Amino acid sequence: MVNPVLLIAVPLGFAFVIPLFALFWKPAIKYLPPLALAFNLVASLLLLTEVCENPIIVSIGGWQPPFCINLVAGPLGVLFSVVIALVGLLVSIYAIEYIKGDDTENYHTLSLLLLTGATGVVLTGDIFNLFVFFEILCISSYALVAYLRDKAGVESAVKYLIQGAVGSSLLLIGIGLLYGLFGTLNMADIAAKIDSVSPISLFVPMVLLITGLGVEAAIFPLNAWLPDAHSSAPSSISAILSGIAIEVGLYAVVRVVFTIFGASSILLFLAFLGILTLLIGELCAFSQNNIKRMLAYSSIGQIGLILFALSIATSGGVTGGLFQLLSHTLAKALLFLAAGYIIYRTGSLQITAFEGMGKKMPLTCLAFTIGAFSLVGLPPFIGFPSKFLIVRAALATKETVFAVLIGLALLGTIIEGAYFFRVIQVLFFQGEEGKPQGQNPAFNERRPDKTSGEAPAVALIPIFVFVVLIVVFGIYPKLVTDVLNSAATELLHRYDYIRSVLG
Amino acid sequence: MIYLVSILVFLMLIGAVMASILKDLIGAVIAATLVSIIAAILFYLLQAPDVAMAEAAVGAALTAAIFIIAIRRTERYEK
Amino acid sequence: MRKIVSILLLIIVAFGIIRALVEIPFGTLKTEVGRYYIEKGVEETGAVNIVTSVVVNYRAFDTLGEIVVLFIAAIGLGAVLRTGREKKTRDVQPASLILFTGCRFLFPFILILGIYIFIHGHLTPGGGFQGGAIIASGFLLIYLGCKERRISRVASHIAESLGGLVFLGIGLLGLVFGSYFLFNFLPMGTANTLFSAGVIPIIYIAIGFKVGSELAGILDNLIEES
Amino acid sequence: MSFLNSYIYYIGAFGLILIGLYIMLVKHNLIKVIVGLGILDTGVNLFLISVGYITKGTAPIFSKPGIDSQQMVDPVPQALVLTAIVIGVAVLALALSLAIRLYQHYRTLDLREIKEQRW
To answer: Which among B47, B79, C208, D25 has the fewest CB atoms less than 10 Å away?
Structure first.
């Protein structure tokens, strides 16, 4: 058995070692994060086979819950840690070549710590510990958004930091209220005692927790920071932020709503909020000319869809939501990585500048197209079975509300299709010769390198792996649905969770 | 005792309001430091000496120092 | 407009919080977990300062996360402020003799005070963070008084990394010896003496050096860079 | 008097929280906003500590033998606040470094004038 603590301790150790390497052996730094994440991937895949029957509970320090912090490696948490390690590994391989400059050790340390924080959030079983790991995730992403130190990056990082800090404070007040009410911080213990308090007095802590976590999850009124932050970070970081950070935020929200509060009354509200987020995100994405902003708004839309699917709260709905989450993570990471080199080669973020790139770098553009098709939900890519599951689950509830909402969601998908096809049309079917484009003033990510065509091999490997995963899971969704089913079961059956932790 | 606490809380809130009102950022930072120091005293009165020490060392001394360094490198007055 | 909306929002927040606080009376006992720590803490961890035993033993994982947060802040700050060019020597305006001598005289005492505080973290109030912060304020004094002096970037990086690695290593040793991460595998000793409480003093010393060097590094970056 | 006795710390804590939030929502100067963030943090910490207080309690340290453990205040919120203080100062330091960078780019700290990124 692999101890789940190692999933957090090993990458932390690597992150602590990187500054030492920076002093004595600099060229080795960029290979450390892939190494750490490869370990995490193998270890969490090994765990995944074990935890599907019985969740593994490890206490830290050797005391019994609720008197210590404990990790809960259930199917849901380990599934997330597999996804985090997988995407993190591929993105960090991509970053070996993509991130250049003389202070790359900062980049590598921060991105590794971001992923460690995300892993901690999904594995921990203690609400304050969740707050601490959440802060690790958030603070390293503030710093990474500003990594390029340009105008746009610093400005977005400031906005992100201020909104995120208010969210964290609200979260901490919520945790304080919960501690005052129940006298414990263990999530299972709180969940077990939740019925002893009147629902009215639970309302305020719940709203505070959802608001605080919702800032990172980019639920509708709280997502003003996201398009700025995701579009001005380096593309590899955008991939992590879009593919992992907001999903982990959403995980925390649903963990709080489903497991701690067991709140079924708020679910319909969350479903509405999800659809609202979806429509706003897709409409804003439609009106964008900046490719990374478009992808960022599309992430908002997708998060809305996932939130909606999870709020259906039937086995099918939650499975579909988790499947959609997986498909969005893979597709969006792929899109950002591919877009990163397209931007690098054209030297512009404007979609109109991409004319004819389909001929210059066919592999990258093909990968971009596959990611876009998958996100829209076309077969045979992973987006198709996931969206199909959501639609089926929504209709299976036989409630008019959900039928209407899923109709709106499909409308959002059509909008999504429209703007992605616009990009693909520009890439492949317009402008034989890329005519010189005006530089976007806000853009100075890196000096464009128009000489060479295709992205370098180190960057193409992760892109290729993403494409393979998207196609394979799209053709054989059975490969993942079992795991997703048991993860959904963990989320829906809070009493099993409580029993497995408290014994 | 309760009067002392009330006066301290009152002063602390006044300090917070001053931090909001003052156009001179150095003044605002000093007001915020006053808030931190009084909070440290309140922590001590609430039987939390560890926290009082941390708040006095981190919240009052170091935070004020980094604020003042940052203000010196940017601008002093709020428009 | 923005003001009115904000004030409305704040009134809603205030209302909600007042509503919630009715259920949480001030000054009453609310918890069994805290009670358990008080009853069993000395016996189980060997530290007479229960807050320390909670911070470094029962909830040590939080503390690990917290020093990671500070580590991220130090690195992120360096990344944000970094200029890329060689640092120019500061326009050395020599401090007055009194200030100079005073700072040099005081600095070792502040250092010793900080170290004393984190070594005695399990006996008296204080611990790694407080001691680290005091050490960092000693460096602040050096910056004010002896302007030409700088802390060595290399030394502070090494202290940072080693502090983190020692903490993590003790955690992993706990996993090896006691099959729990951060298990207190050393003998407890007699309570209320310096050499007691197993791994707690070692962890606090690591935290102290790490926090001290990180906060000093943050100050150094803010003063010197860009 | 009993009102003051039972609520004065809560009043202080939530006063700070509300003033801090007010500064963050209304003010335009970035450094001012960060000052607000510091005040908000202090308020949250004060609230957490007051949750753990027991009337006529003593500090949770067995500094000499024979201390009544029944009257000790709850140590858990104190441990949480120690963590929260350090996290707070980390965020503050990062925010101030970003403010310095922002000032170098825009020559102003007024958030109304810094709007390159818009919908």
So the answer is: B79
